């Protein structure tokens, strides 16, 4: 699948690369708003942070009513880490832009509260180019330990005449009210007791997602009103020096600008819940970009078209559902739903114009990957596209096509850390397991385990735990008795 002209259109490796691959992406993530949920400080236990992250992550599909009364489904994807280098690719694919930030931290004193606020504001500066809105969730001391805190010395900058801060939340009455956020802290603060039920947390986060949507919608409307023949040229980070000194008024470059902006509008429509409009934009952009041989952005238009079509055809595509291969389940036959309500007859969906057929989705993904392979700096984009295409093939029960996409991942030459290499082979093993390729899954796990044994640094206990987990999976996949010597 790798193009024979790979790398000939790319610049040197010193150019900006997307340096951190995200192997967990699904095609549906093209329609999602990206939100970072970050732990600040060391007071809040990791277990508590994980519990709240899982609770926040359940709000992944929000229904919003727009100004015309139309109800839109807005998808949200939450991550625990997000590198700025990947955020810089937001013009190329808008789902890579970090739009929201939620910080969680615990404090026992005014000084610790000030430090959480400072770190949160520094994160806002870090992602300032794309960030729309943010929230900071504080877990403070309760009345149970008020006596142990009452004599604590107040931090500089706060005085006894400060107005007591009241919680915005109904269930935070136990929080001590003597603490206040700094005057330069502009983020909406939510105060909770970590042991309470935090009953209005979902309400507050729904309001937060609504605010992200309305900012995105205003930007979409602003872009849609621009005259396409006068728009500026959108660029991937490594392309910036390639267009210096070129005549941007030439016919081909004007079409390039138009095609890229049209594809960009497709991205914005998809994230705004306007799937049918996004399909029209992607189709139009693909025709324009193909006419000027703009391969990188043509690949992105094909990928966007495939992602939007997959969202229409497979709105409930599930994560990590194994596909069992057997003689009675033919290649390409539809998968059986794992839902308990599968006997209920669902109403027929109204066909959406420009939606690709299941076969064309994989075809367009294949073409997009070939176009990406022509650019060395797009290696991670190509890798992620392979994983997304493989997951759609799994959903369609096309095991052999899924295996082809996964095999292409191995051939992509990337500069990765040892942990990223291990994660890549673990993801490959997981997908090979889902399509029933147990031996390939076992090979990938063995490779990951070997790399982990050789390169892992840290306490011996954790090293053995991680290697042991991988080896147990390997034994199960190879059907070797655990007691065998």
UniProtKB/TrEMBL annotation:
Q: Name one GO cellular component term.
A: trans-Golgi network
User: What segments bear the compositional bias annotation Polar residues?
Assistant: 327-345
Residue ranges for the region (Disordered) are 1-22, 147-173, 325-352
State the InterPro entries in the record.
Trs120_TRAPPC9, Trs120_TRAPPC9_N
Q: Which ranges are annotated Low complexity under compositional bias? A: 1-14
| Any matching Pfam family | TRAPPC9-Trs120
- Give the residues annotated as coiled coil: none
In this chain the Trs120/TRAPPC9 N-terminal domain maps to 195-322
Q: Which family does it belong to?
A: Belongs to the NIBP family.
Q: What is this protein called?
A: Trs120/TRAPPC9 N-terminal domain-containing protein
Q: Which organism is it from?
A: Acanthoscelides obtectus (Bean weevil)
């Amino acid at each position: 699948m790798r193009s024979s002209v790979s790398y000939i259109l790319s610049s040197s490796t010193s150019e900006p690369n997307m340096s951190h691959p995200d192997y967990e992406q699904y095609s549906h993530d093209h329609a999602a708003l990206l939100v970072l949920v970050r732990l600040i400080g060391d007071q809040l236990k990791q277990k508590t942070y994980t519990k709240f992250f899982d609770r926040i992550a359940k709000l992944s599909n929000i229904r919003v009513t727009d100004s015309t009364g139309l109800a839109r489904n807005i998808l949200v994807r939450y991550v625990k880490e997000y590198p700025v280098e990947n955020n810089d690719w937001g013009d190329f694919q808008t789902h890579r832009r970090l739009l929201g930030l939620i910080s969680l931290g615990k404090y026992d004193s005014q000084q610790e509260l000030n430090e959480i606020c400072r770190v949160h504001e520094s994160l806002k500066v870090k992602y300032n180019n794309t960030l729309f809105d943010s929230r900071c969730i504080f877990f403070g001391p309760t009345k149970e330990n008020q006596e142990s805190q009452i004599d604590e010395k107040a931090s500089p900058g706060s005085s006894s005449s400060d107005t007591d801060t009241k919680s915005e939340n109904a269930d935070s009455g136990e929080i001590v009210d003597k603490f206040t956020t700094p005057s330069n802290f502009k983020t909406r603060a939510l105060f909770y007791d970590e042991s309470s039920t935090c009953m209005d947390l979902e309400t507050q986060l729904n309001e937060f997602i609504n605010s992200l949507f309305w900012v995105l919608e205003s930007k979409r409307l602003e872009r849609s009103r621009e005259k396409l023949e006068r728009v500026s040229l959108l660029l991937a980070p490594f392309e910036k020096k390639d267009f210096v000194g070129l005549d941007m008024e030439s016919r081909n470059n004007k079409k390039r600008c138009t095609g890229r902006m049209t594809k960009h509008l497709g991205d914005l429509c998809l994230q705004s819940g306007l799937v049918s409009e996004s399909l029209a934009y992607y189709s139009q952009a693909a025709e324009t970009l193909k006419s000027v041989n703009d391969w990188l952005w043509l690949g992105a238009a094909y990928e966007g078209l495939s992602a939007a079509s997959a969202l229409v055809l497979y709105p409930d595509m599930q994560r990590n559902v194994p596909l069992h291969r057997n003689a009675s389940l033919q290649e390409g036959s539809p998968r059986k739903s794992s839902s308990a309500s599968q006997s209920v007859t669902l109403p027929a969906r109204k066909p959406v114009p420009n939606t690709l057929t299941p076969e064309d989705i994989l075809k367009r993904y294949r073409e997009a990957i070939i176009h990406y392979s022509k650019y060395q700096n797009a290696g991670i984009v190509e890798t992620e596209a392979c994983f997304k295409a493989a997951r759609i093939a799994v959903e369609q029960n096309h095991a052999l096509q899924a295996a082809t996409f996964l095999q292409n991942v191995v051939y992509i030459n990337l500069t990765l850390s040892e942990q990223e290499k291990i994660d890549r082979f673990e993801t490959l093993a997981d997908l090979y397991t889902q399509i029933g390729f147990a031996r390939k899954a076992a090979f990938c796990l063995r490779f990951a385990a070997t790399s982990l044994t050789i390169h892992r640094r840290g306490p011996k206990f954790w090293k053995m735990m991680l290697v042991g987990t991988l080896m147990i999976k390997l034994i199960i996949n190879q059907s070797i008795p655990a007691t065998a010597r």
